[in-house]
Every structure is written in structure tokens, then in C-alpha cells.
């Protein structure tokens, strides 16, 4: 068996999220269907670095799968892209060592969240940004971001619906917020993220940007370990899994 | 009765074109449904500057309608946007004189066509550009554009399926082609365009860009007044109705 690692991009708009579900169109479902065709009917399971929710996009998600076939990496890329609809694109296929696992070998993930801060709605961006027409103080949001960097318990910024049992301590290496024309782009880079964490972080930071909270309130929210303390969950369509980083193998 | 002129923008992806059709989602159908709600059940007909096909976008299309209601223009804009889904946006509403007609008063139309000239497919742009991965000589296409400017019979660049009887003579004030990073943007400004004309112009210019035709061949194609002489119809999703220009009223 060979292990194949792929870097993929997808527009999350027309998917019920990443994870396979019966009777729903999912990223995993579409790629596994393509893999099954390539394997002449044999089911092949794929493993992602992590799931993404309905409407969430990926500029560079990583997956792996094992195969009895002997194809070169360019042929894997071509065969999969030929079978997939155009809202998923296999950017790269590589051979990976047996020890590689898309989820467990990941060292770092990077997410971007794009807010379009314009008074008028733009119909072309509706599925790709959060259109927020009100004034935002980016300097205040930048200041608030600094309180997120480092190792913290992010219970307050994880969905109360999360059933995950383990530790909610994560390390954020970078949390930034920049204005680029009418776009406000949030970047989060860390060793892992809890369910809905980036969207709750953004929802809370937007309240800072509107003057509803002080930047320093982020410390208090973290300390309370209570989802009720943080802001709304920002909508899915502004969120992009931007990159997944692995160590040298 | 008051006449209201609106400048609207729409993402053509999820519409079966502009014109109302039974059992299909169309731009006209959606706006007329909203107008009917505002008029408490009374059907209101709207008139566009012209139709657009399925998948074709509008950055600034113009429509008008007549109404017995007395609303200020900001209220028209708000009421319509509140009822419409987010793939149509009313950018501006204005009161227009009785003599105004969105189609017959139009002096000039501008279309843009966007080609994404990159080797790798981009899933986020699939509905908004024509993804063309092969080499394009933009200088040759610019040169070819010059042959299109002026007053010509555009029979060779109109769909053979067109049932329009009248003259196929149109004046193109501007035909240009520019590279902007990996995008190649075609701009056409003229006093009117025939059915599929912009898409056939682009399909033919792309053949010039690939070296399959000489720039000067455009003159011969025009002279022959025969659709068989021109190139393929470029796909709908790269086409934008960019602006409609009216005289001072």
C-alpha cells in the first residue's frame, strides 16, 4: 500500500461541510466517490487534517489516503481533478511515508476570516466574505488580538455544543487583524483550534471593533472559561482554512 | 403613476437568465415578485436595458417600472433589498421622467469579460471568470480589438440562433484587452450588442491570442457576414454587463 497526501482547495458554498454524511453533498463524500471510481469500485477512506463546517472554505486543506494502486503523483492529481466537480480542486498530490497522518502529524493550522466592511452589499461576494456594513475600529481589534496570542484555555471561545472531552488548551502563534481596502482580514495561526473557535473569536473581535467591548476584556473572557462570556459566532462563509503545516518527514 | 429607474447588480450563477419564464428562477421574476409584494398583490411589470443569459452577471444593469405608490427613492431601495435574496442588489433607485425607458433611452452599454489565465484551476472563481489555462498573447488580442472599433455589420459575431430581424450594424466605441496579473480583461463599449455578440467576440479573440488566427483576420470575418467565420462562443460566467449609459434628461 502507498500513502498519498493531497493539498486540496474547495469552495464550501455547495457542501454540507467536509465530513461524509448520508444523502448530503460533502467534500469527503465527493472525493471518496472519485477514489472509488479510480479503484474500480473499491471503497477508499480519506483522512483530513480536520473537518470544516458547511459554507466554510479551504484554500489549502490536507488529506491522505492509502491505495494499492501504483500511480505517479501527477496522475493522481489529474485523475482526481478529472472526476471532481469544479468546486473542489486537487492542488498537489505527494507520496507520504507510512507514518504520516493528515490529522495527527499536523503541527500548525492557519485560518483566515474575511470581513467585507462596505456600506453597500456586493452580490458577488455573498458566499465568500462576511458583509459587515457598520464602522469597525481595526486598531482596537488589533489590540484585542494580542491578548489571544500564547497558550490559553479557549473554553470561552468554543461551541457549547462541542462534545469533545479533551483539554481546551491551545497555543495561538499569531492572531492579527488588518484592513486591506474595504476588507478586514483576520489571521489565526495555532497548534490547533476548537469547534467554532475561529468564528467565535471573530464574532467577539467584531464587538471590540464596534466599541461594545474593550480590547482588554479578552483576558477576562479567557479567564472565565464560559462560552456565555464571548460574542456571537461569525457566519461560516467568511472563514477559510488557509494552510496546514507539517514537520519535515 | 411614477416612473422609477433602478441600477441593479446581480450574480447570474443561480438564475436562468434575466427574462421571466414559468417555473424558473430569473432576475426579472424575483424583482417582479418583490414589487408585487410591495404593491399588495398588484402585478408590476419591469423593463430592463436588455436581457442577460443564464450565468451572465451584471455590475450595473438598469431597469424601470411604473408605480401608483408614492415612496421616496431610499425607501424603494430598502424595500426591494429587504425582499430580495442576496444575489440581487438594488444599488440605486431614482425617479425618472415619463419619457424614460430603460431599453429605448440607453445610449451606450459597456460589457466586461474576465478570463483567468492561470495553469491551476481556482474553485472560488469558477462561476465568475472563464478559466483558460493556456498561453495567451495579449498584444495580438489588443491589436485584433482595434479592428472591431467603429461602425460595422456584426452578423458574423451574432448567434445564428438569433431571431432578431433588424439591422446588425452596431458601433463599438471601445474594444480593449488588458492583462492585470493573471486576469485578462476585455472591455467593449458600444451603442448596442447583438445576441451572444460579446461572447463570440471573446471566443474569436482568444483564438487570436492562441495564434490560431491573425489579428487582421477580424476584418475578413466582419466582411463575410457569416457566423461560421468567427470563433466559439465563450462561456457565460466570464461576462459582466458593466454599465448602461443614458443621456441627460
UniProtKB/TrEMBL annotation, chains A, B:
Coiled coil spans: none
Classification via InterPro entries: PsdUridine_synth_cat_dom_sf, PsdUridine_synth_TruA, PsdUridine_synth_TruA_a/b_dom, PsdUridine_synth_TruA_C, TruA/RsuA/RluB/E/F_N
Positions annotated to bind substrate: 111
One GO biological process term: tRNA pseudouridine synthesis
Classification via Pfam families: PseudoU_synth_1 (PF01416)
GO MF entries: RNA binding; tRNA pseudouridine(38-40) synthase activity
Pseudouridine synthase I TruA alpha/beta domain span: 9-104, 144-246
SUPFAM superfamilies, sorted: Pseudouridine synthase
Reactions catalysed, as given in the entry: uridine(38/39/40) in tRNA = pseudouridine(38/39/40) in tRNA
Catalytic residues (positions): 53
Enzyme type, top EC level: isomerase
Enzyme Commission (EC) number: 5.4.99.12
Keyword terms of this UniProt record: Isomerase, tRNA processing
Function: Formation of pseudouridine at positions 38, 39 and 40 in the anticodon stem and loop of transfer RNAs.
Family as reported in the entry's similarity comment: Belongs to the tRNA pseudouridine synthase TruA family.
Subunit structure: Homodimer.
Stated name of the protein: tRNA pseudouridine synthase A
Native organism: Cerasibacillus terrae
Protein encoded by which gene: truA
